[in-house]
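Progress narrative, work stream C.
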Amino acid sequence: MYELDPAGHETVLHSFTLGADGGLPYAGVIRDSAGNLYGTTSAGGYEPFWGVVYKLDPTGNETVLHSFGCGAFDGCVPYAGVILDAAGNLYGTTHEGGTGRGVVYKLDMAGAETVLYTFTGEADGGSPYAGVIRDSAGNLYGTTYLGANGSVVYKLDTAGNETVLYTFTSATSGFLPYAGVIGDSAGNFYGTTLYGGTGGWGVVYKLDPSGNYGVLYNFTGGADGGTPYAGLIRDSAGNLYGTTYYGGKSGTGVVFKLKPQ
């Protein structure tokens, strides 16, 4: 874990050992108002080494908040990071564990974990790579990579009830969302899929509050890029920004902007 100052100087804040402190972090970090950093690693922790949720304070001291066990009552291998609510609770997902297809979990300020939902890998989806976002009412939203009927966009309410908002069933509409979703003030969601679309190289999509799904852009794999692993950010004018893994002038990906129209 590192810090980069405005002049481009790097400071290593913590070097993971792949031991009890964790190792192999896929996700980035979030920061609270006191300067503490929170994140996940996909491996390490206490035996059987299935990953951790950690906190790093401003002086560089790491605390393992939770070490995943990968049993029926715990997830494991968290590829996604965490989000933080106003009360200091953390929320995230694991790719595996629970009944075998991953979980959505909550960690309170004391580090006590609650599994909010266990994916079955059936119509409800399974094996999420992406994390979650949270609305003002406390509902969580995210995507799963797999599912018996296809990948899904889901909602998880505060009682732990899951609603599938959309199932990716058509290759031409995109499939296999690696990234999660972002939302706007009107209740719309936006995201990317790794593959599919008319060109087969993935899409940018929009899902409205009524469940209507629309493809905003089809990647061609050429100069415009293709295979977006990452999700999106959105500015106040409604422009969307993201990256692709392939394509572009050199074939090694692009940074793109997509206008509302």
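Work stream C, second folded protein:
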Amino acid sequence: MVSGMSRFRFVTIRIVPRVTAPLAIVLLAAACSVGTQGESPSASPSVSLDQPPPSASLAAASLSPSPSSAPVGLPRDSVAQVVTTDLVVRSSPGVGAESEIYPERLNEPMRVFVVDGPVRADGFDWYLVDPMYICVDVCLERPRFGWVAEAGKDGETWIAAATIDCPAPHPDSLGWLSTGERLACFGNAPLTLDGTVGDCYAAETPVAWKQRSCVLLPPNYVLRDTFERFLSLYAADGVQIPRTGTDVRVIGHFDDPMAETCAVLANPAPDFGLPPVPAEQAVLSCRGDFVVTSIELLAS
């Protein structure tokens, strides 16, 4: 591949606290580095891609979208797998100076969620992708949200269509899924979940529509003083989430239509020494939130 090349809700990291601490979402990006067009991929990944078990400015003159009549290699909202090493991620499609190269590279067999594309630029087909990666605690060197080329000019494939194993819907398993996995597995299909309302917090996020969230604990969960990931509930208009400790049956979905209106109201990144978050990633982040449309109280 061409190592001088690289990469829609910003780069997003969710800081996942202990259950007893407020949930926070930090939208996070990294600085650019310089690559040389024509080099062979060779760098080793600088982050662990292991994930706990379940319980994308188009400024270059050469940019042009692929013809709508042409077959789409990787559909939007699909899953792809990196099938090379040292795959460069950029801030925009193309290899010009206006397209920043991010320092973190992608390596096989990592999977990514396809947010947008293809966009044809500088002889390559580019896709906006979100690495399907779960961060527990603060991960400053996580793989970046951005644009990658599908293949080299010699025809060598760098990302290819892939599938994932989807778990049965459960508060625990859903909590461990990345945004891409949630959307690829369930789309906006209605899901019914039983659980117990955990702690609720004012949303510590710059995203407009998120005002308050509550954790949905698995049924009969015993609180442990350790890092956990559980599903966060965001109430649709007219829905009231009951007090902590209430056993409930909730009906809701991912990919709520309101997610398309999500916007970055403020940038928390400077507080963490990080660059701003792309607006497209804010939308993607909201699409991965579970919006509750109905709640039924269960007998204790």
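The two ends are 58 Å apart (CA to CA). No further action is required on this item.
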